[in-house]
Inverse folding.
């Protein structure tokens, strides 16, 4: 899954009680992530590279690698569909 | 002749246009200058530039804010264009010839002051707040959802008005402080009967047809001890309050920015962080309010009692005179 993603400049977020609240400014929508999704989001924000994110999550969670890759792929696709993530270097202003 | 300097929500405004706000002590150092620009037609289309905020009621666009490197243009459709340079130190008012100057003054003391404060990083809630014995309760709600009515009920029962409709806050390590507003409570026609029981200094009629009641209030910031999200309940017999979890409270507060939802990332990020901090440090309570006129005088006392009961002892006793809210 060699792919690098980033958070667009018009997305802001804050973690409250272990759950991220994401605010997508161009559409004025906000979203909430569950605690595992929040951890993935934080690692994506920090690392960008999805292989590195996968490795970090595998180190933190006792989970089957294939299952993790599938779940992370689903999450990233959902976030990209809502313009909460973009390919690295494609940040909107 | 020197223009008067007003103090509103902690913001000093030196204004060519008369404002319904208290005069500021001292000089005009650091004041935002409010001046008239040209008078000419103001359209109902979005102005050029990047849209960073917009207010729509139903299908009608009420206000659009656009940004360019030199500053911001705030268009109140068919009423007034306000140019704010990037330094956020001036408001230049370009009025439509048909717009009532007093209504423009209300835009300055309301939406424009909230916009400037928000862009400067101060959280501003769409809320009214009252104070009793050194502690403040805030009523956070949208337009026409009971903020001023509840503030009036509380003031009839002995509380003092901190601010109406616009609530600017200073956050610190322990919580939040409410900045005093202009001292006016504005009541819609349905709530006007409440004015009879208020210790009014004076009354007047606003440009948008409300009854404005001037009330004596605190001059210094007041510690905020609880935020109530009122929900009118005609069938309820007494207030019922339920504390929200921090995440849910954050989401509720996010919806109630007085300046609307700004798309400028720095301001939006600051607003999100402020809401989260408020939600972590101040009890945010969903408040079911018995809602039928005439409102009984005991309602305010019951509201204070329920709020006090919903606030954990450590939070309720944290500051102020030690008396209960």
């Amino acid at each position: 899954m060699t792919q690098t993603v980033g958070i667009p400049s018009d997305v802001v977020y804050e973690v409250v009680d272990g759950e991220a609240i994401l605010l997508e400014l161009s559409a004025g929508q906000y979203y909430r992530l569950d605690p595992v999704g929040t951890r993935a989001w934080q690692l994506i924000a920090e690392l960008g590279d999805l292989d590195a994110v996968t490795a970090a999550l595998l180190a933190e969670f006792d989970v089957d690698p294939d299952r993790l890759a599938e779940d992370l792929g689903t999450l990233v696709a959902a976030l990209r569909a809502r313009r909460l993530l973009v390919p690295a270097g494609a940040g909107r202003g | 002749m020197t223009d008067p300097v007003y103090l509103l929500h902690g913001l000093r405004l030196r204004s060519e246009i008369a404002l319904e706000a208290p005069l500021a002590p001292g000089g005009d150092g650091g004041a935002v200058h409010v001046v008239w620009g040209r008078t000419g037609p103001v359209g109902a289309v979005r102005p050029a530039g990047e849209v960073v905020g917009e207010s729509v009621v139903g299908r009608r666009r009420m206000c659009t804010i656009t940004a360019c490197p030199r500053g911001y243009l705030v268009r109140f459709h068919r009423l007034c264009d306000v140019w704010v340079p990037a330094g956020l130190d001036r408001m230049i008012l370009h009025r439509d010839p048909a717009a009532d100057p007093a209504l423009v003054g209300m835009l300055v003391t309301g939406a424009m002051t909230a916009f400037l404060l928000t862009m400067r990083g101060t959280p501003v809630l769409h809320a009214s707040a009252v104070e009793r014995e050194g502690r403040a309760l805030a009523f956070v709600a949208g337009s026409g959802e009971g903020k001023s009515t509840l503030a009036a009920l509380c003031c009839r029962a002995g509380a003092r008005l901190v601010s109406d409709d616009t609530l600017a806050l200073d956050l610190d390590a322990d919580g939040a402080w409410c900045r005093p507003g202009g001292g006016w409570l504005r009541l819609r026609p349905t709530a006007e009967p409440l004015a009879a029981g208020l210790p009014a200094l004076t009354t007047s009629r606003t440009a948008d047809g409300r009854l404005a009641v001037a009330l004596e209030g605190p001059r210094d910031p007041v510690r905020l001890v609880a935020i109530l999200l009122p929900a009118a309940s005609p069938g309820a017999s007494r207030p019922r309050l339920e504390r929200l979890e921090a995440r849910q409270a954050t989401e509720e507060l996010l919806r109630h920015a007085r300046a609307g939802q700004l798309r400028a990332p720095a301001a939006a990020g600051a607003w999100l962080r402020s809401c989260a901090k408020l939600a972590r440090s101040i009890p945010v309570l969903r408040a079911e309010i018995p809602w039928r006129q005439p409102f009984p005088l005991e309602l305010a006392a019951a509201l204070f009692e329920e709020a006090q009961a919903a606030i954990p002892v450590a939070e309720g006793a944290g500051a102020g005179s030690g008396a209960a809210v």
